[in-house]
Here is the input.
Amino acid sequence: MSNSDLRRTIEEKARDLGFDAVGFAPVETLPRDRDRLRDFVAAGQQGDMGWMAETLDRRSSPSALWNEAKTVIVLGISYAPATDSLADLKNKDRALISVYARGKDYHDEVKKRLKQLARWLVETAAGDVKVFVDTAPVMEKPVAARTRVGWQGKHTNLVSRTLGSWLFLGEVFTTLDLSKDTPEADHCGSCTACQDICPTAAFPTPYTLDARRCISYLTIEHKGHIPAEFRSAMGNRIYGCDDCLAVCPWNKFAARTKETAFLPRPELTAQKLTDYLDLDDAGFREVFRGSPIKRIGRDRFVRNVLIGIGNSGEADAVPRVEVLLRDPSPLVRAMAVWALYKLCSESEFAAIRAEHSPSESDPAVLTEWKG
Ligand code: B12
Ligand code: SF4
Ligand code: SF4
Here is the structure.
């Protein structure tokens, strides 16, 4: 089979397996992206994600990850929602979970399809293969931006002219030397919508993100206490954030996802924030089985929910939040204090503090009591 016939056959097979976009990228080091990744790490913008510094050299070079590879087949799969996630921000008593986490875990779903494609490729054209999605040290966006799949927008995510911003990425590395794409041009132009809407000013400049300020990082990756300066801006976003994606004008070309696996589970859509308050470890694992949310664990999840409740103005929640002042987790106790501070009058808060703060010994929780 000729190189171009093989490329076409791969594309057809990928589409049969449910992928919406296919591209072919080189494996050589990405010097410009390596330098930018170095700058990002040197500025500490990765926050707690220490693995970014540890894997720095491998991340910027697909061939350093696997030196026999000759081509990276980039695959994109749409998870475009049917509803407007920005509208859900107005329902302050409801839990806003970011679109990518409302269905089944995309890591499992994308990997399953990548493996099917890789197996088929070995049977059809021989060669060796490896598959990657998200967790491996691959800079997936810069690699994808070397193909026709799309460009890195000013929000730093990959944007497709036909699929918009709601796109998961995955890769099949192969030893087959397939011809490579001409990269898609940048079509952001003078638009600044994603920068303007960001509630925490997380973009120091267009095309760069300070992860430490991003609500997605704070609610998912950050293991400690969420700094006070970001709590009000989080609103009811308790897991991830979609604002910069949702506002992108290229989404008007995006048809809603065809993948049933990515359709929202009803119980993760506009649930009342207070419904999540009583979750213990076992309850949390039960509700979030098969969901990417399970990864953050019950304590971090309830920490986020308490911030949402503090922002909701729902004074009825006070007695249930008070119960969490005795929670074993300092992460939870600290945000229970913060939520009460936001929901109660000065005198109510003083009374609750007088009752509970004397038995508190954790320094971070005591700091919250001091206000
Ligand atoms: C770490 C990480 C995060 C971190 C940091 C995000 C970030 N922007 O890097 C946090 C936790 C914040 C995060 C959040 C989200 N993430 Co994330 N994340 C990753 C991960 C694991 C690594 C990304 C990385 O290497 N970042 C380091 C920085 C330095 O890399 P970079 O963004 O590519 O940076 C480049 C630009 O800054 C650029 N640049 C700098 N200056 C300039 C100037 C110009 C002119 C240009 C063109 C470029 C440019 O150069 C850098 C190097 O190329 C990838 C998976 C993977 N293995 O790649 C998923 C991934 C990027 N995440 C993804 C998703 C879906 C999200 C969220 C939408 C989830 C959510 N709803 O909450 C948000 C989006 C937030 C945002 N605006 O980026 C998808 C994105 C898919 C896509 N279409 O691009 C990925 C690819 C996972 C996947 N397999 O699908 N994520
Ligand atoms: S995901 Fe939200 S907080 Fe993060 S950069 Fe985008 S708009 Fe800002
Ligand atoms: S919102 Fe505008 S600037 Fe941001 S990625 Fe989309 S087109 Fe580019």
